[in-house]
Amino acid sequence: MQLIEQTLGNYLEKWAFETPDNDFMVYADRGLRFSYSEFNQRVDRLAKGMLYIGIKKGDHVGVWATNVPDWLTYFFAAAKIGAVLVTVNTSYKTHELEYLMSNSDLHTLCLIDGWRDSDYLGMVSELVPELKTSERGFLKSERFPCLKNVIYIGPEKHRGMYNTQELILLGEHIDDTELEDAKAEVDPYDVVNMQYTSGTTGFPKGVMLTHVNILNNGYSIGDRQKFTNKERVCLPPPLFHCFGIVLGVMAVLSHGAALVMIETFDPLLVLASVQKEKATALYGVPTMFIAELNHPMFNMFDLSTLRTGIMAGSLCPIETMRAVIDKMYMKDITIVYGLTESSPGMTQSFADDPMEKKVTTVGREFPMVEVKVAHPETGEELPVGEQGEMCCRGYNIMKGYYKNPEATASVIDKDGWLHSGDLGVKDPDGNFRITGRIKDMIIRGGENIYPREIEEFLYQMPEIKDVQVAGVPSPKYGEEVGAFIILHEGKNLSEEDVKDFCRGKIARFKIPKYIFFMKEFPMTASGKIQKYKLRELSVEMLKKQGIEVI
Fold first, then answer.
1. Predicted model pTM
2. CA distance 257 to 517
3. Taking the chain, what is the end-to-end CA distance rounded to the nearest angstrom?
4. H/E stretch holding 521
5. % of the chain exceeding 90 in pLDDT
6. Which domain holds residue 520?
7. How far apart are CA 241 and CA 194, in angstroms?
8. Which stretches does DSSP call E strand in 66-115?
9. Which helix (H) or strand (E) holds 94?
10. DSSP states along 220-286
11. Could you tell me the CATH number of the domain that includes residue 151?
Protein backbone atom coordinates (compact mmCIF):
# COMPACT_ATOMS: atom_id res chain seq x y z
CA MET A 1 0.00 0.00 0.00
CA GLN A 2 1.12 3.51 -0.85
CA LEU A 3 0.11 6.38 1.40
CA ILE A 4 -2.75 8.41 -0.11
CA GLU A 5 -1.63 12.02 0.21
CA GLN A 6 -4.83 13.67 -0.96
CA THR A 7 -7.60 15.71 0.63
CA LEU A 8 -11.11 14.36 1.16
CA GLY A 9 -12.39 16.94 -1.33
CA ASN A 10 -9.97 15.67 -4.01
CA TYR A 11 -11.10 12.09 -3.44
CA LEU A 12 -14.78 12.95 -3.67
CA GLU A 13 -14.13 14.81 -6.94
CA LYS A 14 -12.14 11.87 -8.30
CA TRP A 15 -15.22 9.58 -8.04
CA ALA A 16 -17.61 12.33 -9.18
CA PHE A 17 -15.52 12.47 -12.36
CA GLU A 18 -14.80 8.73 -12.81
CA THR A 19 -18.15 7.23 -11.73
CA PRO A 20 -20.57 10.20 -11.67
CA ASP A 21 -23.77 8.13 -11.74
CA ASN A 22 -22.82 5.58 -9.06
CA ASP A 23 -24.72 5.87 -5.77
CA PHE A 24 -22.81 7.61 -3.01
CA MET A 25 -25.52 7.84 -0.35
CA VAL A 26 -28.97 6.26 -0.06
CA TYR A 27 -31.70 6.53 2.58
CA ALA A 28 -33.90 3.50 1.87
CA ASP A 29 -36.68 4.57 4.26
CA ARG A 30 -37.46 7.74 2.27
CA GLY A 31 -36.27 6.90 -1.25
CA LEU A 32 -33.55 9.56 -1.08
CA ARG A 33 -30.37 8.95 -3.04
CA PHE A 34 -27.40 10.98 -4.22
CA SER A 35 -24.98 9.89 -6.94
CA TYR A 36 -21.34 10.88 -6.54
CA SER A 37 -21.87 13.71 -9.04
CA GLU A 38 -25.05 15.02 -7.37
CA PHE A 39 -23.52 14.88 -3.91
CA ASN A 40 -20.32 16.63 -5.04
CA GLN A 41 -22.38 19.44 -6.61
CA ARG A 42 -24.39 19.93 -3.42
CA VAL A 43 -21.16 19.96 -1.37
CA ASP A 44 -19.68 22.68 -3.63
CA ARG A 45 -22.81 24.81 -3.34
CA LEU A 46 -22.79 24.53 0.46
CA ALA A 47 -19.03 25.18 0.59
CA LYS A 48 -19.59 28.46 -1.27
CA GLY A 49 -22.31 29.36 1.23
CA MET A 50 -19.87 28.72 4.06
CA LEU A 51 -17.33 31.00 2.41
CA TYR A 52 -20.01 33.68 2.01
CA ILE A 53 -20.74 33.80 5.77
CA GLY A 54 -17.07 34.06 6.62
CA ILE A 55 -16.01 30.46 7.37
CA LYS A 56 -12.38 30.07 6.33
CA LYS A 57 -9.47 27.66 6.56
CA GLY A 58 -8.80 26.51 10.13
CA ASP A 59 -12.20 27.58 11.50
CA HIS A 60 -14.00 25.03 13.68
CA VAL A 61 -17.47 24.03 12.48
CA GLY A 62 -19.52 21.86 14.86
CA VAL A 63 -22.22 19.46 13.68
CA TRP A 64 -24.76 18.41 16.30
CA ALA A 65 -27.13 16.00 14.61
CA THR A 66 -28.12 12.39 14.08
CA ASN A 67 -27.18 10.80 10.74
CA VAL A 68 -29.39 13.20 8.75
CA PRO A 69 -28.78 13.47 4.97
CA ASP A 70 -26.93 16.79 5.15
CA TRP A 71 -24.55 15.72 7.93
CA LEU A 72 -22.07 14.57 5.31
CA THR A 73 -22.73 17.58 3.08
CA TYR A 74 -21.50 19.84 5.90
CA PHE A 75 -18.56 17.54 6.57
CA PHE A 76 -17.27 17.53 2.99
CA ALA A 77 -18.07 21.21 2.42
CA ALA A 78 -15.98 22.12 5.47
CA ALA A 79 -13.20 19.79 4.28
CA LYS A 80 -13.09 21.41 0.84
CA ILE A 81 -12.47 24.90 2.22
CA GLY A 82 -10.04 23.78 4.93
CA ALA A 83 -12.38 24.17 7.90
CA VAL A 84 -12.31 21.59 10.71
CA LEU A 85 -15.48 19.61 11.36
CA VAL A 86 -16.00 19.19 15.11
CA THR A 87 -18.31 16.27 15.87
CA VAL A 88 -20.77 16.82 18.71
CA ASN A 89 -22.11 13.79 20.58
CA THR A 90 -25.89 13.50 20.08
CA SER A 91 -26.38 12.70 23.79
CA TYR A 92 -24.81 15.92 25.06
CA LYS A 93 -26.70 18.07 27.50
CA THR A 94 -26.16 21.77 28.24
CA HIS A 95 -23.08 21.38 30.46
CA GLU A 96 -21.26 19.15 27.94
CA LEU A 97 -22.20 21.36 24.99
CA GLU A 98 -20.97 24.46 26.79
CA TYR A 99 -17.64 22.77 27.52
CA LEU A 100 -17.17 21.62 23.90
CA MET A 101 -18.13 24.98 22.37
CA SER A 102 -15.70 26.78 24.62
CA ASN A 103 -12.84 24.26 24.52
CA SER A 104 -12.95 23.85 20.73
CA ASP A 105 -13.14 27.60 19.99
CA LEU A 106 -16.20 26.84 17.88
CA HIS A 107 -16.73 29.32 15.04
CA THR A 108 -19.98 27.89 13.64
CA LEU A 109 -22.49 25.42 15.09
CA CYS A 110 -24.81 23.44 12.77
CA LEU A 111 -27.68 21.61 14.47
CA ILE A 112 -31.04 19.86 14.16
CA ASP A 113 -34.07 20.29 16.50
CA GLY A 114 -32.94 17.66 18.96
CA TRP A 115 -32.84 13.94 19.69
CA ARG A 116 -34.70 11.80 22.20
CA ASP A 117 -35.16 13.96 25.30
CA SER A 118 -32.60 16.58 24.25
CA ASP A 119 -33.89 19.90 22.89
CA TYR A 120 -30.86 21.17 20.95
CA LEU A 121 -32.48 24.46 19.92
CA GLY A 122 -33.53 25.12 23.52
CA MET A 123 -30.05 24.40 24.87
CA VAL A 124 -28.34 26.64 22.32
CA SER A 125 -30.81 29.46 23.00
CA GLU A 126 -30.01 29.13 26.71
CA LEU A 127 -26.24 29.22 26.15
CA VAL A 128 -26.34 31.88 23.42
CA PRO A 129 -29.21 34.25 24.38
CA GLU A 130 -27.80 36.81 21.92
CA LEU A 131 -29.29 34.74 19.07
CA LYS A 132 -32.71 36.26 19.78
CA THR A 133 -31.50 39.78 19.07
CA SER A 134 -28.52 39.30 16.74
CA GLU A 135 -28.61 39.84 13.02
CA ARG A 136 -27.39 36.75 11.22
CA GLY A 137 -23.72 37.03 10.44
CA PHE A 138 -23.15 39.52 13.24
CA LEU A 139 -23.44 37.25 16.28
CA LYS A 140 -21.44 38.39 19.30
CA SER A 141 -21.67 35.85 22.12
CA GLU A 142 -20.44 36.89 25.54
CA ARG A 143 -19.87 33.30 26.63
CA PHE A 144 -18.33 32.08 23.33
CA PRO A 145 -16.30 34.91 21.78
CA CYS A 146 -15.20 32.71 18.81
CA LEU A 147 -18.81 31.83 17.84
CA LYS A 148 -19.97 33.74 14.75
CA ASN A 149 -22.75 31.59 13.22
CA VAL A 150 -25.45 29.12 14.17
CA ILE A 151 -26.95 27.14 11.27
CA TYR A 152 -30.11 25.05 11.34
CA ILE A 153 -29.74 21.81 9.35
CA GLY A 154 -33.09 21.80 7.58
CA PRO A 155 -35.56 24.09 5.80
CA GLU A 156 -37.18 25.73 8.85
CA LYS A 157 -36.27 29.26 9.93
CA HIS A 158 -35.14 30.09 13.45
CA ARG A 159 -34.31 33.45 14.95
CA GLY A 160 -30.66 34.43 14.54
CA MET A 161 -29.82 31.30 12.53
CA TYR A 162 -29.16 30.56 8.88
CA ASN A 163 -30.68 27.39 7.47
CA THR A 164 -29.19 24.98 4.91
CA GLN A 165 -31.22 26.25 1.95
CA GLU A 166 -30.38 29.89 2.70
CA LEU A 167 -26.70 29.01 2.90
CA ILE A 168 -26.83 27.30 -0.51
CA LEU A 169 -28.60 30.34 -2.01
CA LEU A 170 -26.06 32.74 -0.47
CA GLY A 171 -23.32 30.62 -2.01
CA GLU A 172 -24.52 31.70 -5.46
CA HIS A 173 -22.93 35.10 -4.74
CA ILE A 174 -19.50 33.42 -4.55
CA ASP A 175 -17.60 32.92 -7.78
CA ASP A 176 -16.40 29.37 -8.55
CA THR A 177 -12.81 30.64 -8.72
CA GLU A 178 -13.03 31.69 -5.04
CA LEU A 179 -13.98 28.13 -4.10
CA GLU A 180 -11.15 26.74 -6.24
CA ASP A 181 -8.68 29.11 -4.54
CA ALA A 182 -9.89 27.94 -1.10
CA LYS A 183 -9.56 24.27 -2.12
CA ALA A 184 -6.03 24.86 -3.38
CA GLU A 185 -4.98 26.07 0.08
CA VAL A 186 -5.93 22.79 1.78
CA ASP A 187 -3.10 20.39 2.58
CA PRO A 188 -3.66 16.61 3.11
CA TYR A 189 -1.81 16.91 6.44
CA ASP A 190 -4.18 19.62 7.72
CA VAL A 191 -6.63 18.74 10.48
CA VAL A 192 -10.04 17.97 8.94
CA ASN A 193 -11.94 16.44 11.85
CA MET A 194 -11.88 16.95 15.60
CA GLN A 195 -13.59 14.38 17.82
CA TYR A 196 -14.03 14.68 21.54
CA THR A 197 -13.15 11.53 23.43
CA SER A 198 -15.80 10.45 25.84
CA GLY A 199 -13.22 9.54 28.54
CA THR A 200 -14.65 7.98 31.67
CA THR A 201 -12.70 10.41 33.82
CA GLY A 202 -11.72 14.02 33.43
CA PHE A 203 -12.90 16.40 30.74
CA PRO A 204 -13.20 15.22 27.14
CA LYS A 205 -10.28 16.09 24.87
CA GLY A 206 -10.44 17.18 21.24
CA VAL A 207 -8.63 14.61 19.07
CA MET A 208 -7.23 16.29 15.93
CA LEU A 209 -7.34 14.05 12.85
CA THR A 210 -5.98 14.92 9.40
CA HIS A 211 -7.12 14.05 5.86
CA VAL A 212 -4.19 11.60 5.63
CA ASN A 213 -5.09 10.05 9.01
CA ILE A 214 -8.66 9.13 8.23
CA LEU A 215 -8.58 8.59 4.45
CA ASN A 216 -5.75 6.06 4.65
CA ASN A 217 -7.25 4.34 7.66
CA GLY A 218 -10.56 4.08 5.81
CA TYR A 219 -8.81 2.66 2.75
CA SER A 220 -7.11 -0.11 4.77
CA ILE A 221 -10.37 -0.89 6.56
CA GLY A 222 -12.22 -1.30 3.25
CA ASP A 223 -9.33 -3.30 1.83
CA ARG A 224 -9.51 -5.87 4.62
CA GLN A 225 -13.17 -6.39 3.70
CA LYS A 226 -12.27 -6.80 -0.01
CA PHE A 227 -14.22 -3.69 -1.00
CA THR A 228 -14.76 -2.71 -4.63
CA ASN A 229 -16.81 0.18 -5.98
CA LYS A 230 -19.78 -2.25 -6.13
CA GLU A 231 -20.02 -2.44 -2.34
CA ARG A 232 -23.17 -1.18 -0.59
CA VAL A 233 -22.46 -0.54 3.07
CA CYS A 234 -25.35 -0.25 5.54
CA LEU A 235 -24.22 2.17 8.26
CA PRO A 236 -26.21 2.37 11.54
CA PRO A 237 -23.39 3.72 13.81
CA PRO A 238 -23.43 7.50 14.40
CA LEU A 239 -21.34 9.77 12.19
CA PHE A 240 -20.08 11.78 15.15
CA HIS A 241 -18.00 8.74 16.11
CA CYS A 242 -14.96 7.29 14.32
CA PHE A 243 -16.91 4.11 13.66
CA GLY A 244 -19.34 5.99 11.46
CA ILE A 245 -17.13 8.57 9.80
CA VAL A 246 -13.91 6.54 9.27
CA LEU A 247 -14.74 2.82 9.30
CA GLY A 248 -17.90 3.66 7.38
CA VAL A 249 -17.70 6.81 5.24
CA MET A 250 -13.93 6.81 4.62
CA ALA A 251 -13.85 3.11 3.73
CA VAL A 252 -16.67 3.78 1.23
CA LEU A 253 -15.17 7.00 -0.17
CA SER A 254 -11.70 5.50 -0.64
CA HIS A 255 -13.21 2.66 -2.75
CA GLY A 256 -15.90 4.61 -4.60
CA ALA A 257 -18.61 2.44 -2.98
CA ALA A 258 -22.12 3.34 -1.74
CA LEU A 259 -23.50 4.18 1.71
CA VAL A 260 -26.90 2.90 2.84
CA MET A 261 -27.58 5.32 5.68
CA ILE A 262 -29.60 4.84 8.87
CA GLU A 263 -30.60 8.16 10.50
CA THR A 264 -31.00 6.72 14.00
CA PHE A 265 -30.54 3.09 14.93
CA ASP A 266 -33.63 0.91 14.70
CA PRO A 267 -33.11 -2.85 14.19
CA LEU A 268 -36.20 -3.15 11.98
CA LEU A 269 -35.09 -0.24 9.76
CA VAL A 270 -31.62 -1.80 9.43
CA LEU A 271 -33.03 -5.18 8.35
CA ALA A 272 -35.44 -3.51 5.89
CA SER A 273 -32.70 -1.28 4.43
CA VAL A 274 -30.33 -4.23 3.92
CA GLN A 275 -33.04 -6.09 2.02
CA LYS A 276 -34.30 -3.15 -0.05
CA GLU A 277 -30.87 -1.84 -1.10
CA LYS A 278 -29.23 -5.27 -1.35
CA ALA A 279 -26.48 -4.22 1.03
CA THR A 280 -23.28 -6.25 0.86
CA ALA A 281 -21.86 -5.05 4.18
CA LEU A 282 -23.36 -4.17 7.54
CA TYR A 283 -21.69 -2.35 10.43
CA GLY A 284 -22.54 -2.17 14.10
CA VAL A 285 -21.49 -2.45 17.69
CA PRO A 286 -22.31 -5.82 19.32
CA THR A 287 -25.49 -4.46 20.95
CA MET A 288 -26.83 -3.47 17.50
CA PHE A 289 -26.24 -6.94 16.06
CA ILE A 290 -27.81 -8.52 19.16
CA ALA A 291 -30.93 -6.31 18.67
CA GLU A 292 -31.17 -7.27 14.97
CA LEU A 293 -30.71 -11.01 15.58
CA ASN A 294 -33.30 -11.01 18.36
CA HIS A 295 -35.92 -8.92 16.56
CA PRO A 296 -39.19 -10.90 16.29
CA MET A 297 -39.37 -10.15 12.52
CA PHE A 298 -35.75 -11.14 11.80
CA ASN A 299 -36.70 -14.23 9.78
CA MET A 300 -38.96 -12.23 7.45
CA PHE A 301 -36.05 -10.42 5.77
CA ASP A 302 -33.79 -11.56 2.95
CA LEU A 303 -30.25 -10.74 4.05
CA SER A 304 -28.53 -13.03 1.56
CA THR A 305 -26.76 -10.15 -0.24
CA LEU A 306 -24.66 -9.54 2.87
CA ARG A 307 -21.08 -10.74 2.71
CA THR A 308 -18.96 -8.67 5.06
CA GLY A 309 -19.05 -5.85 7.58
CA ILE A 310 -17.57 -4.80 10.86
CA MET A 311 -18.39 -5.50 14.48
CA ALA A 312 -16.47 -3.08 16.67
CA GLY A 313 -16.76 -0.33 19.28
CA SER A 314 -16.58 -2.69 22.24
CA LEU A 315 -15.43 -6.24 22.88
CA CYS A 316 -17.33 -8.64 20.63
CA PRO A 317 -19.05 -11.61 22.29
CA ILE A 318 -18.02 -14.83 20.58
CA GLU A 319 -21.58 -16.19 20.42
CA THR A 320 -22.85 -13.00 18.76
CA MET A 321 -20.10 -13.20 16.16
CA ARG A 322 -21.00 -16.84 15.39
CA ALA A 323 -24.69 -15.94 15.04
CA VAL A 324 -23.91 -13.07 12.65
CA ILE A 325 -21.82 -15.38 10.45
CA ASP A 326 -24.37 -18.21 10.53
CA LYS A 327 -27.68 -16.31 10.35
CA MET A 328 -26.82 -13.07 8.53
CA TYR A 329 -24.61 -14.56 5.76
CA MET A 330 -21.68 -12.38 6.87
CA LYS A 331 -18.95 -14.99 6.46
CA ASP A 332 -16.42 -12.24 5.65
CA ILE A 333 -17.22 -10.12 8.73
CA THR A 334 -14.24 -8.47 10.35
CA ILE A 335 -13.34 -6.87 13.66
CA VAL A 336 -11.50 -3.55 13.89
CA TYR A 337 -9.64 -2.54 16.99
CA GLY A 338 -8.34 0.90 17.87
CA LEU A 339 -9.25 4.22 19.46
CA THR A 340 -10.11 7.71 18.31
CA GLU A 341 -6.48 8.78 18.80
CA SER A 342 -5.37 6.18 16.18
CA SER A 343 -7.90 7.39 13.55
CA PRO A 344 -9.22 4.85 14.86
CA GLY A 345 -7.93 1.54 13.42
CA MET A 346 -4.77 -0.20 14.67
CA THR A 347 -5.64 -3.76 13.74
CA GLN A 348 -8.31 -5.63 11.80
CA SER A 349 -9.07 -9.23 10.99
CA PHE A 350 -9.09 -10.31 7.33
CA ALA A 351 -12.30 -11.23 5.52
CA ASP A 352 -11.06 -14.77 4.88
CA ASP A 353 -9.50 -15.44 8.29
CA PRO A 354 -10.64 -18.74 9.81
CA MET A 355 -13.63 -18.58 12.13
CA GLU A 356 -11.51 -19.24 15.21
CA LYS A 357 -9.32 -16.18 14.52
CA LYS A 358 -12.35 -14.00 13.82
CA VAL A 359 -14.04 -14.79 17.06
CA THR A 360 -11.03 -14.76 19.36
CA THR A 361 -8.72 -12.02 17.97
CA VAL A 362 -8.81 -8.48 16.54
CA GLY A 363 -6.57 -9.42 13.64
CA ARG A 364 -3.24 -7.93 12.61
CA GLU A 365 -1.82 -4.44 12.25
CA PHE A 366 -2.57 -2.38 9.15
CA PRO A 367 0.02 -1.70 6.43
CA MET A 368 2.36 1.14 7.41
CA VAL A 369 1.23 0.83 11.04
CA GLU A 370 3.35 -0.69 13.84
CA VAL A 371 1.62 -2.35 16.79
CA LYS A 372 3.33 -3.80 19.84
CA VAL A 373 2.36 -5.26 23.20
CA ALA A 374 4.42 -3.30 25.70
CA HIS A 375 5.24 -3.58 29.38
CA PRO A 376 2.85 -1.06 31.02
CA GLU A 377 5.65 0.52 33.04
CA THR A 378 8.80 0.27 30.92
CA GLY A 379 7.25 0.44 27.42
CA GLU A 380 9.50 -2.44 26.31
CA GLU A 381 7.98 -4.80 23.75
CA LEU A 382 6.92 -8.08 25.33
CA PRO A 383 7.37 -11.54 23.79
CA VAL A 384 4.56 -13.39 21.99
CA GLY A 385 1.98 -14.71 24.48
CA GLU A 386 2.72 -12.18 27.24
CA GLN A 387 0.04 -9.68 28.27
CA GLY A 388 0.81 -5.98 28.17
CA GLU A 389 -0.41 -2.62 26.87
CA MET A 390 -1.41 -2.24 23.22
CA CYS A 391 0.68 0.50 21.58
CA CYS A 392 0.72 1.84 18.05
CA ARG A 393 2.87 4.01 15.76
CA GLY A 394 2.36 5.18 12.17
CA TYR A 395 0.51 7.57 9.80
CA ASN A 396 -2.70 6.99 11.77
CA ILE A 397 -1.63 8.66 15.01
CA MET A 398 -3.57 11.84 15.77
CA LYS A 399 -1.98 15.23 15.38
CA GLY A 400 -2.60 15.69 19.11
CA TYR A 401 -5.23 16.87 21.57
CA TYR A 402 -6.44 20.39 20.81
CA LYS A 403 -4.74 23.00 23.03
CA ASN A 404 -3.53 20.25 25.37
CA PRO A 405 0.14 19.38 24.82
CA GLU A 406 0.44 17.86 28.31
CA ALA A 407 -2.33 15.34 27.68
CA THR A 408 -0.87 14.62 24.22
CA ALA A 409 2.53 13.89 25.75
CA SER A 410 0.92 11.58 28.33
CA VAL A 411 -0.38 9.20 25.60
CA ILE A 412 2.23 9.62 22.79
CA ASP A 413 5.74 8.88 24.05
CA LYS A 414 8.99 10.42 22.81
CA ASP A 415 9.40 7.64 20.24
CA GLY A 416 5.98 8.29 18.72
CA TRP A 417 4.16 5.32 20.29
CA LEU A 418 0.52 5.88 21.19
CA HIS A 419 -0.38 4.13 24.46
CA SER A 420 -3.93 2.78 24.34
CA GLY A 421 -4.61 1.86 27.96
CA ASP A 422 -5.87 -1.51 26.67
CA LEU A 423 -4.38 -4.87 27.58
CA GLY A 424 -3.57 -7.34 24.83
CA VAL A 425 -1.59 -10.39 23.79
CA LYS A 426 0.05 -11.23 20.47
CA ASP A 427 -0.25 -14.83 19.29
CA PRO A 428 2.36 -16.81 17.29
CA ASP A 429 0.49 -16.04 14.03
CA GLY A 430 0.77 -12.28 14.58
CA ASN A 431 -2.86 -11.78 15.60
CA PHE A 432 -3.70 -9.65 18.60
CA ARG A 433 -6.20 -10.48 21.31
CA ILE A 434 -7.61 -7.78 23.60
CA THR A 435 -7.78 -9.09 27.14
CA GLY A 436 -9.16 -6.08 28.96
CA ARG A 437 -8.59 -2.48 29.81
CA ILE A 438 -6.01 -1.41 32.32
CA LYS A 439 -8.60 0.62 34.19
CA ASP A 440 -11.37 -2.00 33.61
CA MET A 441 -9.25 -4.63 35.27
CA ILE A 442 -10.69 -5.84 38.56
CA ILE A 443 -8.17 -6.18 41.35
CA ARG A 444 -9.59 -8.42 44.08
CA GLY A 445 -7.35 -8.83 47.04
CA GLY A 446 -4.27 -8.62 44.86
CA GLU A 447 -5.63 -10.92 42.14
CA ASN A 448 -5.87 -9.32 38.68
CA ILE A 449 -9.16 -10.32 37.05
CA TYR A 450 -9.97 -9.55 33.42
CA PRO A 451 -13.72 -9.08 32.82
CA ARG A 452 -13.60 -10.35 29.23
CA GLU A 453 -12.61 -13.83 30.38
CA ILE A 454 -15.62 -14.14 32.71
CA GLU A 455 -18.01 -12.59 30.15
CA GLU A 456 -17.07 -15.14 27.49
CA PHE A 457 -17.51 -17.93 30.01
CA LEU A 458 -20.99 -16.76 31.07
CA TYR A 459 -22.10 -16.40 27.43
CA GLN A 460 -22.15 -20.20 27.35
CA MET A 461 -25.35 -20.12 29.42
CA PRO A 462 -28.16 -20.28 26.81
CA GLU A 463 -30.48 -18.06 28.89
CA ILE A 464 -28.05 -15.10 28.74
CA LYS A 465 -28.57 -12.58 25.95
CA ASP A 466 -25.87 -10.10 27.03
CA VAL A 467 -23.51 -9.84 30.00
CA GLN A 468 -21.01 -7.32 31.31
CA VAL A 469 -18.60 -7.89 34.17
CA ALA A 470 -17.31 -5.00 36.25
CA GLY A 471 -15.75 -4.35 39.64
CA VAL A 472 -18.00 -3.73 42.65
CA PRO A 473 -16.44 -1.91 45.61
CA SER A 474 -15.53 -4.11 48.57
CA PRO A 475 -14.26 -2.96 51.98
CA LYS A 476 -12.51 -6.32 52.42
CA TYR A 477 -10.93 -7.03 49.02
CA GLY A 478 -10.97 -3.60 47.39
CA GLU A 479 -13.16 -4.96 44.60
CA GLU A 480 -15.46 -7.91 44.04
CA VAL A 481 -16.65 -9.34 40.73
CA GLY A 482 -20.09 -8.19 39.61
CA ALA A 483 -21.97 -9.74 36.66
CA PHE A 484 -24.66 -7.61 35.00
CA ILE A 485 -26.95 -9.84 32.95
CA ILE A 486 -29.68 -9.32 30.33
CA LEU A 487 -31.74 -12.48 29.79
CA HIS A 488 -33.39 -13.68 26.58
CA GLU A 489 -37.10 -12.95 26.54
CA GLY A 490 -39.09 -15.56 28.41
CA LYS A 491 -36.00 -17.04 30.13
CA ASN A 492 -35.36 -17.16 33.86
CA LEU A 493 -32.22 -17.52 35.94
CA SER A 494 -31.49 -17.06 39.61
CA GLU A 495 -28.30 -15.67 41.13
CA GLU A 496 -27.56 -19.16 42.44
CA ASP A 497 -27.98 -20.70 38.95
CA VAL A 498 -25.22 -18.44 37.65
CA LYS A 499 -22.89 -19.19 40.55
CA ASP A 500 -23.55 -22.95 40.26
CA PHE A 501 -22.63 -22.79 36.57
CA CYS A 502 -19.29 -21.20 37.52
CA ARG A 503 -18.36 -23.46 40.41
CA GLY A 504 -15.66 -25.85 39.54
CA LYS A 505 -15.16 -24.35 36.10
CA ILE A 506 -13.43 -21.07 36.84
CA ALA A 507 -11.22 -20.04 39.77
CA ARG A 508 -13.17 -19.27 42.94
CA PHE A 509 -11.97 -15.65 43.01
CA LYS A 510 -13.36 -15.13 39.49
CA ILE A 511 -16.87 -16.29 40.33
CA PRO A 512 -19.17 -13.23 40.51
CA LYS A 513 -20.05 -12.41 44.08
CA TYR A 514 -22.88 -10.18 42.90
CA ILE A 515 -25.36 -10.95 40.12
CA PHE A 516 -27.57 -8.17 38.76
CA PHE A 517 -30.37 -8.86 36.27
CA MET A 518 -31.05 -5.85 34.05
CA LYS A 519 -33.25 -4.77 31.12
CA GLU A 520 -30.53 -2.62 29.50
CA PHE A 521 -26.98 -1.33 30.06
CA PRO A 522 -25.98 2.32 30.38
CA MET A 523 -24.52 3.33 27.02
CA THR A 524 -22.92 6.21 25.21
CA ALA A 525 -24.74 7.56 22.13
CA SER A 526 -22.35 5.55 19.96
CA GLY A 527 -23.48 2.29 21.57
CA LYS A 528 -20.52 1.67 23.89
CA ILE A 529 -21.36 0.22 27.27
CA GLN A 530 -20.26 2.49 30.14
CA LYS A 531 -18.70 0.05 32.59
CA TYR A 532 -17.89 2.72 35.14
CA LYS A 533 -21.63 3.44 35.38
CA LEU A 534 -22.32 -0.23 36.06
CA ARG A 535 -20.02 0.08 39.07
CA GLU A 536 -22.03 3.08 40.27
CA LEU A 537 -25.34 1.28 39.67
CA SER A 538 -24.15 -1.77 41.60
CA VAL A 539 -23.64 0.32 44.73
CA GLU A 540 -27.19 1.72 44.43
CA MET A 541 -28.78 -1.68 43.76
CA LEU A 542 -26.98 -3.33 46.68
CA LYS A 543 -28.02 -0.48 48.97
CA LYS A 544 -31.66 -1.20 48.11
CA GLN A 545 -31.00 -4.80 49.21
CA GLY A 546 -29.63 -3.48 52.51
CA ILE A 547 -26.00 -4.25 51.54
CA GLU A 548 -23.54 -1.42 52.12
CA VAL A 549 -20.29 -1.84 50.14
CA ILE A 550 -18.86 1.65 50.56
1. 0.87
2. 43
3. 54
4. none
5. 82
6. 442-544
7. 10
8. 84-87, 108-111, 114-115
9. helix 94-103
10. HHHHHTT--TT-EEEE-S-TTSHIIIIIIIIHHHHHT-EEEE-SS--HHHHHHHHHHHT-SEEEE-H
11. 3.40.50.12780
